Amino acid sequence: MSFQLDEDLERQDKLATWIEFLNYEYRKYDKHANTTKRLQSRHDVAWKKLVDANVLKPLETEESLCVFGIWLQLKNEEIEAEKAMEPAISVTKSAEQDLLRAQSAGLSGRSLSRIEQKLSAAKSKLAATIKSLEWIIRRRNLIGDYNDETKSYRIAKDDTEDQSIFCDGYCSRSP
Question: Rounded to whole angstroms, what are the CA distances from 117 to 19, 52, 94?
């Protein structure tokens, strides 16, 4: 079967127009697929870096980190951790003041020891709260970096999938 493409669509038959259309759509698919393939290694490196950082939660996947809701979740985690800082700082300052007053009053022995233990516990809680906030900020930054580094790949992959669906559904029909 032969066909002839013509710049004037009035002189071109339906089969030639259909073949021209299919060629155009499959070339678009090939372009998207090649871009996806080219960006795959950069995506894989970014994913490995994120996994190796040990900041992912058990059910988090590549797909779950690329939805808009993840940003709200990460920001809420950070806000909650920041809120936890206020009482931890307050309790630590209060325990420090209690210790200073006790020392100024000349208390010693058990009373002083209890206040020192209270201060030690408060400092420990504050250190854990700071560490948690730092981990949450690090997690948010690393997930943000991953999403930034892989954005082009995800767009190309989505375009390839969309074009594939189009080609499989529409291009399989005959004119």
Answer: 83, 38, 13
- CA pair distance 112, 146, nearest whole angstrom: 50
Kindly calculate the radius of gyration of the chain based on its CA atoms and give it in whole angstroms: 31
**Average pLDDT for the chain:** 87
Taking the chain, what is the end-to-end CA distance rounded to the nearest angstrom? 15
Measured CA distances, 113 to 12, 35, 109, 118, 128 (Å): 97, 67, 6, 9, 22
Give the integer Cα–Cα distance in Å for 58 and 113: 42
Q: Cα separation of 110 and 127, whole Å? A: 25
Q: Could you please report the per-residue DSSP string of 124-157?
A: HHHHHHHHHHHHHHHHHHHHHHHHHHHHHHHHHH
Given a cut of 90, is residue 16 above it in pLDDT?
no
Q: pLDDT tens-digit profile of 67-94? A: 778 888 899 999 999 999 999 999 999 9
